[in-house]
Write a structure and sequence with these properties.
Layout: E1 5-9, H1 15-25, H2 32-40, E2 45-52, E3 55-65, E4 68-76, H3 85-99, E5 104-110, H4 114-122, E6 126-135, E7 140-147
Parallel strand pairs: 4-5
Antiparallel strand pairs: 1-2, 2-3, 3-4, 5-7, 6-7
Length: 150
């Protein structure tokens, strides 16, 4: 089945859907307030939503700082995983970062999140380090990945 997903900049009106995705994706989800802050107070943030029939089914965000982009989070609703939505979000974030003058992109991913690591490797990211106990909810390590030459 092919999904006709549209990608657009996240707005405050999207937050109900974003929070639904967040609840299905993470053991310790971000708060609504964290997203409000990202959208209204952080001049470096850039967030997208993926919509299917007007409903948010995924989102991704990053900070654009000088010539580097740092992916802060990316998630797809559990019902829609494995359909290429995460890949589309990442490709669009990478294109936007390049448009905004970024030359490199970085992210952290849970050591146990093998599907995400696989996607990032396919997109040209390389594991360059480990942040021990990075995730405060489980003390799980984060793999630090970089993509040079956006």
């Amino acid at each position: 089945m092919v999904f006709e997903v549209s990608l657009e900049r996240m707005t405050l009106d999207d937050l109900d859907g974003v929070m639904t995705v967040e609840q299905t994706a993470f053991v310790t989800p971000w708060s609504r307030r964290a997203f409000v802050t990202e959208l209204t107070e952080n001049a470096y943030s850039y967030y997208l939503v993926a919509k299917l029939d007007g409903q948010v089914v995924g989102y991704g965000g990053m900070w654009l700082i000088l010539d580097e982009a740092h992916v802060t989070n990316i998630a797809v609703h559990s019902r829609y995983r494995g359909k290429g939505i995460g890949k589309r979000l990442m490709l669009e974030l990478m294109a936007a970062a390049k448009t905004h003058g970024c030359r490199r992109m970085t992210l952290e991913v849970r050591r146990s999140n093998l599907p995400a690591q696989s996607l990032y490797l396919k997109l040209g990211f390389e594991a360059r380090g480990v942040r021990k106990g990075y995730y405060t909810d489980t003390r799980e390590d984060a793999i630090v990945m970089w993509k040079d030459a956006l």
